Amino acid sequence: MTRSALVDKVAEKVEGLTRKQTEIVMETVFDSIKEALQKGEKIEIRGFGNFRLKTRNPRKARNPKTGESVDVPAKKVLHFKVGKELKELLNP
Amino acid sequence: MTKADLADAIFEKVGLSKKEAQDIIEIIFDTLKQTFKEGESVKVSGFGTFHVRKKAARRGRNPKTGEDLEISPRKVITFRASNKLKLVIEQ
After folding, report:
1. pLDDT tens, A34-64?
2. Is A76 helix (H, G, I), strand (E, B) or coil?
3. Which of A9, A45, A90 is nearest residue B75 as measured by Cβ atoms?
4. Which of A74, B18, B76, B89 is the most exposed place for a label (fewest CB within 10 A)?
5. What is the spatial distance between Cα B11 and Cα B17, in angstroms, rounded to a whole number?
6. Residue A83 near residue B41 (C-beta atoms within 8 A)
């Protein structure tokens, strides 16, 4: 399912909201999450899951072609943890 | 950030009432959950993809007691950030 199919489904369920408005709502939701992550915030959606950033330590790696050692800087990766309610819904 | 903050953002940007904003947040995440329940993955362009993965049953061990046990087959959700989102996070 894609974003637009998701908009359709949600628009169907909400009375008095046009598809266009639903689209803006959806965009606001994902943009807000993105902005919060940019600030390094944790996002906690009860019943669904959490998004948070994890830090990967800097490390030394090798270029497999030349064998030369390269420094890989520290970086942040996004981690999604499934919420309890969703886990139970998937595995009754 | 919680669902309440998301509802506030919608209240400010879209001009729905607070109650309507809260309701629609619930509906969005409920719709996502139902979709996962049906085993379908969801791709949100510019954000990322939620994949539903089916794990087969396997043998495991209780690390505390050392007891052998069967781990039941289950569904898990994995989230992969889109390249756009990865760039936003890296900065």
Report:
1. 999 999 999 999 999 999 999 999 999 999 9
2. strand
3. A90
4. A74
5. 6
6. no
B22 SS3 class: helix
- Token pair 């008095």 in the structure block, residue: A16
Judged against a pLDDT cut of 90, whether residue A32 lies above it is answered with: yes
User: Are the beta carbons of B61 and B67 closer than 8 angstroms?
Assistant: yes
Q: Distance (Å) from the C-alpha of residue A64 to the closest C-alpha of chain B?
A: 24
SS3 A25: helix
On chain A, the residues whose CB falls within 8 A of the CB of B47 are: 30, 33-34
Task: From B50, B40, B35, B39, select the one nearest B82 (Cα to Cα).
Answer: B50
Q: Which residue, B25, B24, B20, is CA-closest to B2?
A: B25
CA distance B31 to chain A (A): 7
Written as six digits, the tokens of B72 are 């039941």
SS3 A1: coil
**Is residue B26 classed as helix, strand or coil in its secondary structure?**
helix
Q: What is the ipTM of this complex?
A: 0.86
Q: Which two tokens stand for residue A91?
A: 């595995």
Chosen for mutation from A17, A29, A50, A76 (greatest number of chain B CBs closer than 10 Å) is A29
